[in-house]
Write a sequence for this structure.
């Protein structure tokens, strides 16, 4: 039997079918944006299945208003983040601590984790898929880490997985928030295989109804569905690597200005992002290249605390979400207002941990 999500159902539908633990994100009107309740449900479910010998593997998918698949997860619930950040709601702290713990658990689950990354896969959606052992994209996958547009940074382990993309692709995706499709996701190491849209439901049912002898048999069934897909950004890779490898945000922007029409459009994109957070993000990606996942998540937990509390009344994140999703005027009042006005001390402050190591909220994460 297939569970059909509905608006009357819980936001996370979790069931064991055959040898698979199967999760459907069921908040379609919000493109399955993660609420604190969803994070807690996912964390509790995965912790239980991790210890359950009857569960061979986990599969996760999203839903849309017409049924399953179509949209994986658009990220965290930014309206909640804005309201909590504006009012001092302590659940803001809980959300990030528990979300990052969930991200770490997925990477270290010890069992196959198959993410059906169909449709929109952004922000927090990347956080609950990038740790998977089989990350499946389709021809309608739209993947991005667009946080600089809301005065945030690519968190949920973004420093870790973006910094491991080839060349300077990590800097490009992190700074601009550009959206990529299936071919680029595969080329950049952010997906493991592409499956056709019309084969998702059949594969999901096969996973639920097959008596797999072992993990190898399961993996073989999934991989047998893979189809080839060409990357779209190949023609820009030389410019990406040349421009986004520059030492500073200002140097990156200047290099782009001197490039192709595509590069100049990228420079214009950077000019719309939070100048302060561009500096923070560039440092994040470059530090994370030398970090383990746990170290990166602890760094990101420090950074996100500062996004809301370092500058009382001047949070770039609260302002960015206001402009994009609350008032929707699309005119954030960034401070500082330009790339050239950001001083080193301003962005370096984001990397000072507010906690001693032994009391860090993610101190328990193992490398």
């Amino acid at each position: 039997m297939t569970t059909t999500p509905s608006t009357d159902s819980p936001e996370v539908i979790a069931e064991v079918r055959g040898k698979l633990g199967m999760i459907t994100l069921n908040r379609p009107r919000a493109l399955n944006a993660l609420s604190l309740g969803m994070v807690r449900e996912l964390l509790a479910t995965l912790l239980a299945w991790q210890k359950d010998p009857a569960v061979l593997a986990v599969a996760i998918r999203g839903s849309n208003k017409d049924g399953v698949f179509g949209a994986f997860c658009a990220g965290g619930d930014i309206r909640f983040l804005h309201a909590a950040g504006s009012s001092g709601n302590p659940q803001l702290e809980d959300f990030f601590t528990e979300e990052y713990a969930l991200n770490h658990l997925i990477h270290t689950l010890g069992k196959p984790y198959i993410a059906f990354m169909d449709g929109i896969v952004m922000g927090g959606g990347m956080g609950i898929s990038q740790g998977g052992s089989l990350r499946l994209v389709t021809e309608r996958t739209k993947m991005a880490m667009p946080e600089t547009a809301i005065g945030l940074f690519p968190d949920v382990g973004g420093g870790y997985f973006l910094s491991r993309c080839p060349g300077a692709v990590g800097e490009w995706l992190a700074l601009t928030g550009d959206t990529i499709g299936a071919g680029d996701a595969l080329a950049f190491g952010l997906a493991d295989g592409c499956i056709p849209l019309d084969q998702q439901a059949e594969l999901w049912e096969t996973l639920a109804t097959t008596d797999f002898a072992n993990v190898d048999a399961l993996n073989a069934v999934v991989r047998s569905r893979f189809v080839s897909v060409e990357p779209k950004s190949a023609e820009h890779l030389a410019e990406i690597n040349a421009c986004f490898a520059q030492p500073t945000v200002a140097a990156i922007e200047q290099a782009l200005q001197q490039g192709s029409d595509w590069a100049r459009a990228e420079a214009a994109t950077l000019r719309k992002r939070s100048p302060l957070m561009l500096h923070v993000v560039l440092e994040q990606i470059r530090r994370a290249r030398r970090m383990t996942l746990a170290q990166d998540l602890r760094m990101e937990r420090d950074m996100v605390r500062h996004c809301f509390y370092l500058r009382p009344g001047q949070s770039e994140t609260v302002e960015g979400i206001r402009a994009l999703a609350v008032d929707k005027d699309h005119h954030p009042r960034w401070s500082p207002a330009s790339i050239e006005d950001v001083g080193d001390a301003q962005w370096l402050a984001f990397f000072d941990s507010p906690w001693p190591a032994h009391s860090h909220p993610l101190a328990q994460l193992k490398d």
Notes: The chain has two domains: 1-141+181-232, 236-367.
